[in-house]
Design brief:
Layout (H helix, E strand, L loop, with lengths): L11 E11 L3 E10 L2 E5 L11 E4 L4 E3 L5 E6 L2 E6 L3 H27 L4 H49 L4 H76 L8 E6 L15 H10 L7 E2 L37 H9 L22 H5 L17 E5 H6 L6 H7 L4 H14 L10 E3 L6 E6 L5 E9 L4 E8 L3 E13 L3 E7 L1 E6 L5 E5 L2 E5 L7 E12 L5 E6 L12 E7 L5 E8 L3 E15 L5 E7 L3 E5 L15 H6 L15 H7 L3 H31 L12 E5 L6 E5 L3 H7 L10
Parallel strand pairs: 10-11
Antiparallel strand pairs: 1-2, 1-7, 2-3, 3-4, 5-6, 6-7, 8-9, 8-25, 12-13, 13-14, 14-15, 15-16, 15-17, 16-19, 17-18, 18-20, 19-20, 20-21, 21-22, 22-23, 23-24, 24-25, 24-26, 27-28
Amino acid sequence: AGGPPAAPGSDTYKGWLFKWTNYLKGYQRRWFVLSNGLLSYYRTQAEMAHTCRGTINLSTAHIDTEDSCNIVLSNGGRTYHLKANSEVERQRWVTALELAKAKAIRMRNNQSDDSGDEEPASQSDKSELHGTLKTLSSKLEDLSTCNDLIAKHGAALQRSLSELESLRVPAESGEKIKAVNERATLFRITSNAMINACRDFLDLAETHSRKWQRVLQYEREQRIRLEETIEQLAKQHNSLERACRGAPGLSSASTGITSTAKAGSVQSAKGEASDEDEETEYFDAMEDAPAFITVTADPKHHRRSGSNLSGASEGHPEDWNLEDSVFESSNQSSYNESTCKDLLPKKRRRTRIPDKPNYSLNLWSIMKNCIGKELSKIPMPVNFNEPLSMLQRLTEDLEYHELLDKAVKCESSTEQMCFVAAFSVSSYSTTVHRTAKPFNPLLGETYELDRLEEFGFRSLCEQVSHHPPAAAHHVYSKRGWTLWQEITIASKFRGKYLSIMPLGAIHLEFHSSGNHYVWRKVTSTVHNIIVGKLWIDQSGEIEIVNHKSKDKCQLKFTPYSYFSRDVPRKVTGVVSDADGKAHYVMSGTWDEKMECSKIVQSSHGSTSTEGRQKTVYQTLSPKVLWKKYPLPENAENMYFFSNLALTLNEPEERVAPTDSRLRPDQRLMESGRWDEANVEKQRLEEKQRAVRRRREAEAVEALEEGKDYEGYVPLWFERKVDAVTGELICVYKGGYWETKDKQDWSVCPDIF
């Protein structure tokens, strides 16, 4: 190991050490960096710029030495066995580690002491400054005393040297005595200069400390004022929203919606008509926002012809009811009755699961070594999970499947697009409170949801790849549609937030019309990973394309901003035909509802400050397409599961032995036995790693013999090039439901 380039007394200490990895590889050379009380290591020095292999906090670590060259660091469940190149090298590191540990403990204690209110903290700062100045004054007095002693003894020394010069000594000795005398004089002059410099420093410290104190106090007062102002603005914002929603007689007005005519950046109103003066005030405050206006117009002046919209061919308000009660802005109960009256389940499903245990866990101790890594490669205890697998979460997208049943009945492709767009947004409604992580499925794990008799569809998912994790999904509905997708989850932990990026296209085809829709999911972000309450946001854009008619729908998920006056979790979009002509405006929120407004007239508005042309859409009153079902009672203690989610892990007979319902660690967690679930989870993951190692060995053996190795082959899906997108995608090849009828599961692997 090379010697560290930094001294043990400095803030940063770096160098090569040997770290124990495992019994196969033994000790491996690693580059270690000690900084700010943290010891981190990398495979190479170049990795310092992007990849940290591990970090241990010295403030709570135990430092031990086994022999002349070994160091053992332990902190909780983590232990580093390190070896230096020599005993001297080992001692340097031990000294640096002990100093860093002591400093880290002092910093931690100081941080815990500084958690009081602003005014006491200010008084503490003042006393600390005065104490520092008092210490400096004391040291200055000590230096003055030393200076006096130096001057006294220096004068005596010079007298002695002068006496020596007066004696009769050889010429060479006289020269040496003279040189010593000159150096003594220089020493006395230098010490006097040092004392004067120290006195000047103390004077400056006293002068500037008062200035710094005033600046610090001013900044604190400004911060308090800013916090009070923001709090007041937030309260006013909420009051205005409540006043706007509670104002009578607003729903009858036609709504004019302005959007920026630029590809990929569609903006529209939430769909609720509001007071004209309030709207003007709103958008004067937002300089670059598109202008939203409210227009009260006689719909008879906007009659249109040549449209194939069922029940809305001429844009007349009383004709604006495409399907009975589909677009009606009714309350939740009447909506559920109108949409689900013929979909009542024939089998009684469970309505609750055991309450979530209240276990405490130090998140930072686990997550601090995961920054920048792929989430699927981080070993996590079940404490961060919910008792559902990713396959079940994927199936949960079907909660509002009745939207697709209604889309089948649409005669117009643009009208059908509205329902498909609402369905694509509805899949995010279950995520608003669901901050827990689903279980990563094992390779070959499956999940079926057979609701053919109850709701007309049956769904099958299979985990077709482990690294990267990918799941294939196929849904068939006897009511006239088929949906399939292959989703790969890419995720990155960035310290303060976690980004989850689903990759892959979702396909939806209607049997009678042949309309084939394709879209992709947006990015989900989990905020406040380390400190504060976890919350989820969706952001990005969805482009839904009908590859038969070339109709498009651009949906924009607006990211949350504390300073924005937009409705939180806002989704807006425009449905246009193959010629680019806009027909409908979509608006709403991804956690509550989506509305559809028919466009009766469009015109070009003013140009924005960025030089973009604006288009003004005049629309009829919005109609509700989708509204979120209320959560079941006691949902906050049941992981905020919806009614469908509560049934997804309900035990069922005759399912495949690879079904997620049979996964033991997930079942133990649902029962509240988390410690046993963690043990079982480790067993399953180690079993999967053993299978992967065996498969890798077989691949190496086949390569040495010059044979082809096919690798893992999904059981119920097969890879094909999609004719629409040209991508390689896993599609259902058939056979699962037939195998279930025969109850011959001999082809299934043993994964549990």
